[in-house]
Amino acid sequence: MVNAALEQRPTRASSIYLLLRDDILGGSLLPGAKLNIRDLSNTYSSGLSPVREALNRLSAEGLVLQEDNRGFKVQPVSVPELIDLTQARCWVNEIGVRESIEKGDTEWEEAVILSCHRLKRIPRFLPDDETVPNPKWAVVHKDFHQSLISACGSNWMIDTCSRLFDAAERYRNLARGAGVSRSDPRDEHQEIMSAAVDRKTDLVIELLNSHFQRTAQLVQTVVVVGEEDAV
Amino acid sequence: MVNAALEQRPTRASSIYLLLRDDILGGSLLPGAKLNIRDLSNTYSSGLSPVREALNRLSAEGLVLQEDNRGFKVQPVSVPELIDLTQARCWVNEIGVRESIEKGDTEWEEAVILSCHRLKRIPRFLPDDETVPNPKWAVVHKDFHQSLISACGSNWMIDTCSRLFDAAERYRNLARGAGVSRSDPRDEHQEIMSAAVDRKTDLVIELLNSHFQRTAQLVQTVVVVGEEDAV
DNA sequence: CCGAGAAAAATGATCGATCATTTTTCACTG
DNA sequence: CAGTGAAAAATGATCGATCATTTTTCTCGG
Predict the structure, then answer these.
(1) Chain B 185-204, CB < 7 Å to strand C
(2) What whole-number distance in Å separates Cα of residue B52 and Cα of residue B58?
């Protein structure tokens, strides 16, 4: 018998990669924090190799900083980098959105509406503890933003936006960890969605840019914390 | 005494990473080729770990494809992906150039002129063997293209362009390996440079886009070869 | 007490052995 | 002879020991 969708049991390295990634993006591993390999392999009760492999992937991705013979640390953050990143997001998403609106068919429209709906519905925080953010929210949030550019016609473009989104996600989570968060991004998402399906290109871009900029503004007020920790 | 610029001896993993990367980008490792870890560690006379670490970095970068429990292979290529990639390059470079021209000062202009000059001067192939491309050329070529966007004001943007450039570089080298190469990109670079320092924004973008598209066109004619090998 | 330099400790990098999974081989059945 | 499934081989993943480098601690002369 042929096993059509051969189940791929992930390797230890891959599992650890995902866990570490979550911890970095989620902000529980602070910028600049030393990533001691023996400690980590202890935490995940594995050998050294899988941890190293995971760290190598993360360093290629830019989430972890690697210095030969000096190991790994969580990539530091800074206000200039946040500004830099936000600028890049505005620019790249602008093209993605512009092209998507031009090329997007009904299916695209529906995907945007659907992901926006899900985002509106999903609770921002866990039902039992109002201070812990709902991890599913992050997924749905990203889905929405990615849906906007999904019809642009280039996967390289989509990957690029994804990468930028993740980097920004880390800043957002750091800010939240320091007690700063948006008033209600829900309405903004709604507005963006409406403008997108109405094909009001310039409006979408304007809304999206200020959406990005406003987040960056908020985050800036607290990133200093991360920098202090980044010894 | 304080050692100001503490010389960092690269680890084996880092060296192997660079070598593998060159072989993939340079086209000596064909798309889809199996990357056997024992063989590689033999080739580089090292243990298994450094090779694995190098491969993990390359897989995070997208140059190598990793499947859990099935090892690594060189990332396959395809005509659709080349088109996709070229599109992304046109879009992203357009913004980079536009912003650079707007913000670039004299220093930027000089950097563009300088790198273009170097590109004009450096021999395309090795002096002793006219069929072997000069590895320095690739460096200088990339420098030129990166210089065009270097004043855009966002390192994330510059990194993105760099990533896209490298991906395209692999396609170029594969085409060359199959005997296809540009008539004379030298003149095109010259034209682009002139237009850039003259701040003829729209012209630069037009030239750059057709520069990218023309290369992609050529490459397409032979990429099929790579796909056949990618078994 | 300060700082230079040696010794010790900690940590990172590498190795080869071993375990797990996948792929290939091959004998057998129908 | 094709197809099945068990064994064998090949290959990938992981482990812990060991080696190399960096960081910390300690000692001592000034």
Answers:
(1) none
(2) 10
Instruction: Note the pLDDT of residue B4.
Output: 36
Sign of the C-alpha dihedral, residues A96, A101, A106, A110? positive
Q: Report how far residue A116's alpha carbon sits from residue A20's, in angstroms, rounded to the nearest whole number.
A: 28
Taking contacts as CB-CB distances below 8 angstroms, the residues of chain B near A9 are 68-69
The band of B224, judged by pLDDT with boundaries at 50, 70 and 90, is low
Query: Confidence band (pLDDT; 50, 70, 90) for A3?
Result: very low
A58 touches strand C (CB under 7 A): no
Contact B31, B77 (CB under 8 A): yes
**Protein CA A47 to sugar C1' C21 (Å):** 18
Nearest to B99 by CA among B155, B162, B183: B155
Q: Which nucleotides of strand D lie under 7 Å from a protein CB?
A: 5, 11-17, 21-23
Q: Is the CB of B42 under 7 A from strand D?
A: no
pLDDT tens sequence across A218-229: 888 765 544 444
**pLDDT over 70 (residue B149):** yes
Q: Where are the domains of chain A?
A: 12-19+27-74, 79-229
Q: Which CATH number fits domain A79-229: 3.40.50.1820, 1.20.120.530, 3.30.1490.10, 3.30.450.70?
A: 1.20.120.530
Instruction: Out of B49, B87, B157, name the one closest to residue A153 (CB).
Output: B87
Supply the pTM of this predicted model.
Answer: 0.91
pLDDT for residue B226:
46
Q: Are the C-beta atoms of residues B14 and A56 closer than 8 Å to each other?
A: no
β-pair partners for B67: B71
DSSP B133: B
Please state which CATH number belongs to domain A12-19+27-74.
1.10.10.10
Within window 69-98 on A, which residues have Cβ closer than 7 Å to strand C?
Answer: 69-72
List strand D contacts in B 47-66 (CB < 7 A).
Answer: 48-49, 52, 66
pLDDT digits (tens, 9 = 90+) for A182-193: 766 668 999 999
CA of B224 to C1' of C12 (A): 44
Same topology between domain B12-20+29-74 and domain B79-229: no
- B18 to chain A, any CB pair closer than 8 A? The answer is no
Residue B110 corresponds to which amino acid? Answer: E
Q: Which residues, listed in sequence order, are joined to residue A11 by a DSSP beta bridge?
A: none
